[in-house]
Amino acid sequence: MRRITLLPAFLLALLLGGCAMPTALSPQEEGVAITRRMNDLSRAIVAADKAALESIAWPELSYGHSGGRIENHAQYVDVLVSKKSIITKVDLSKTTTTMVGDLALVRGHMFLMVESTGKPVPTDLEFLMVWQKRGGEWRLLARQAYKI
Fold first, then answer.
1. pLDDT, tens digit, for every residue of 30-78?
2. Where does the chain show beta strands of DSSP type E?
3. Residue pair 109/141 in contact by the 8 Å Cβ criterion
4. Would you tell me how many other CB atoms lie within 10 Å of the CB of residue 102?
5. How far apart (Å, rounded) are the C-alpha atoms in residues 129 and 45?
6. Is the pTM of this model over 0.85?
C-alpha cells in the first residue's frame, strides 16, 4: 500500500501562491500615486479633456462647488467640456493626505483662474477630495470646495 504525502504539495502550493500575491504599497507610495492623480485631474480640467475627466472619477462621483452646487459624474464632465466653466489654471498647494483603508482624504488649497464673461477671475478655495482605490486604481469619489 502506497502512502501519499500531501504536506510537501501543500507547502509548495503555499510558497508559489505567496510569490504571486501582490505587495501592498507603502503609505508614502500611495501618497505619490494620489499626487499623480491630483495632477492628472488638474491637467484634465484645464484641457477640458472629456476622456481624461471621465476616467479620473468613479461613476458615483459627488462634486461639490464652493457656491453650493453639487454635480454628479456626467454633470461635472459636461460643465468642463462644454466650456460652461472655463478654467485656465489650477494650482494646488498645502495638501495633506490621510489614508483610511481604500480611501485617501486630501485637503488643501486650490488657486484657479476662471474665465467669466471674457475676463480672468482669480479664485482661491480650500477643498476636500476623497479618492478611492478599486482594483488597484485610484479615482475621485467626492470633492467639496469652499471659499476662504
1. 989 999 999 999 999 999 999 999 999 999 999 999 999 999 999 999 9
2. 57-64, 70-71, 86-100, 103-116, 119-134, 137-147
3. no
4. 11
5. 15
6. no
